TrEMBL record:
This is Haloacid dehalogenase-like hydrolase domain-containing protein Sgpp. It holds the Pfam family HAD_2. Its cofactor is Mg(2+). The keyword Magnesium applies. CDD domains: HAD_BPGM-like (cd07505). The keyword Metal-binding applies. It comes from Coffea canephora. InterPro entries: Beta-PGM-like (IPR051600), HAD-like_sf (IPR036412), HAD-SF_hydro_IA (IPR006439), HAD_2 (IPR041492), HAD_sf (IPR023214), PGP-like_dom2 (IPR023198). SUPFAM superfamilies: HAD-like. It comes from the Eukaryota. GO terms for molecular function: catalytic activity; metal ion binding.
């Protein structure tokens, strides 16, 4: 289970001990003339014990302040394994318009360069020479293709029901935060049976800036009326992870399709395979112990 490394904990403790001792009772002379502090060994041990406890309480695997109040979810690739459907739709349609000399894009290119980006940004990436309206028409057609394919192929990420139950039992607030168009986002949430689960859906298109900027996540915590320190984000793309980190929240990243290395480089606090991952549940159990400061 990912935790703060031992050396880091005790380095932090030692620093805090030094600070406290620097404000302890003044120096005096002992019988041999040496300078000593009027701080007993027992007192030092007590200070060290208290600081150890406080440091371990402040640091949990998700770095969330107690109490946890909200969890913010991305949709595509996070709640469901929709990445292959998006990849297929883009690959087929880009090949039709002669992108990349008519050669199909690779899954690696899609994941590293495209996955998680807002459609406006994808227009500029894929079609820098196209008229914007033409590029957006392509994106709209691609989303329509996704919605045709999704009902037969969309599956929830393993353990989603279990995590949703954990959240509901604790009365936590929750929001879906996505760069997807409204129609696609609502379709996925409906297919997963989560219409009544989310209190709020935040669309990147409704914010001044979409992911990877923090605006969508900042809007979510504002509307839920929770502090960033009492929430964390669940994402699956580097773009989404960067958005959560920029918003000042720890991010759990689902590495079902995206490489773990890519997600960690983006700043993910914890990378897991799915919602059954023992590392995730270990971190959630830490939060359950109410050890925050």
């Amino acid at each position: 289970m990912p935790t703060l490394a031992g050396n880091q904990v005790f380095s932090s403790i030692s620093t805090d001990v030094s600070k406290i001792l620097s404000h302890s009772r003044p120096l005096c002379k002992n019988f041999s003339g040496s300078c000593i502090r009027l701080t007993s060994v027992a007192a030092r041990a007590r200070i060290f014990s208290e600081l150890t406890s406080q440091t371990l309480q402040c640091k949990n695997a998700l770095s969330v302040r107690d109490p946890l109040e909200a969890i913010l979810f991305d949709i595509d690739g996070t709640l469901c394994d929709s990445v292959p459907i998006h990849y297929y739709a883009f690959r087929e349609m880009l090949q039709e318009v002669g992108y990349n000399g008519g050669q199909p894009i690779t899954e690696e290119f899609f994941i590293k360069r495209m996955n998680g980006l807002h459609n406006d940004e994808l227009c500029h990436l894929l079609f820098p020479d196209w008229d914007f309206d033409r590029a957006m028409k392509f994106m709209d057609d691609k989303e329509a293709m996704f919605r045709r394919l999704a009902p037969e192929q969309l599956k929830p990420v393993n353990g989603l029901d279990k995590l949703c139950k954990w959240i509901e039992e604790r009365g936590l607030k929750r929001a879906a935060v996505t760069n997807a168009p409204k129609e696609s986002a609502e379709l996925i949430i409906s297919m997963l049976g989560l219409d009544d689960f989310f209190e709020l859906i935040v669309l990147g298109s409704e914010c001044e800036r979409a992911k990877p900027f923090p605006d969508p996540y900042l809007k979510a915590v504002e509307h839920l009326k929770v502090a960033r320190e009492h929430a964390f984000v669940v994402e699956d793309s580097a773009s989404g992870v960067k958005a959560g980190v920029a918003a000042g929240m720890p991010v759990v990243a689902i590495a079902s399709r995206n490489p773990e290395k890519l997600l960690k480089a983006a700043g993910a606090t914890l990378v897991v395979t799915d919602f059954e991952d023992t590392n995730l549940w270990g971190a959630l159990k830490e939060l359950d112990r109410n050890l925050g400061c």
